[in-house]
Amino acid sequence: MVGNGASIKFWSDCWLHGKTIAEDAPNMIQIIPKRAGKQRMVAQALHNRRWMSDIKGGSDSRGAGGVPANLFVDDFHLQHDIPNHHQWLLMGSGS
Questions:
Q1: Which pTM value belongs to this model?
Q2: Measuring CA to CA, which residue among 42, 52, 44 is closest to residue 76?
């Protein structure tokens, strides 16, 4: 569960409706520098739409079904006074 977004990676963690950004916008994730993909936290990214500055070298910022990716995150609101709750699901192998 996303609370304040301080410890959840914007580009690579499952935080937006149980999915990663890559699942909703696979073409866009290809033009994100690896460093930004590993370091940008949700709280940082949502502040003043800072996530948009991570997009480099491409023009396809459309998500699933051709919907601009910012529509997926613009309606998301952090809960600043609540810490994040991380939950890992076991794989079919039990690991």
A1: 0.70
A2: 42
Domain around 25: 1-89
CB-count exposure of residue 28 (10 Å: 0-12, 13-18, 19+): buried
Distances (CA, A) of 85 to 7, 10, 48, 72, 74: 9, 15, 24, 21, 21
For the chain, list residues with pLDDT below 70: 1, 57-72, 74, 83-95
**Residue 26 main-chain phi, psi, to 5 deg:** -60, -35
Tokens of 52: 């948009």
Residue 95 inside a domain? The answer is: no
Q: Is residue 5 part of a domain?
A: yes
pLDDT value for 43: 92
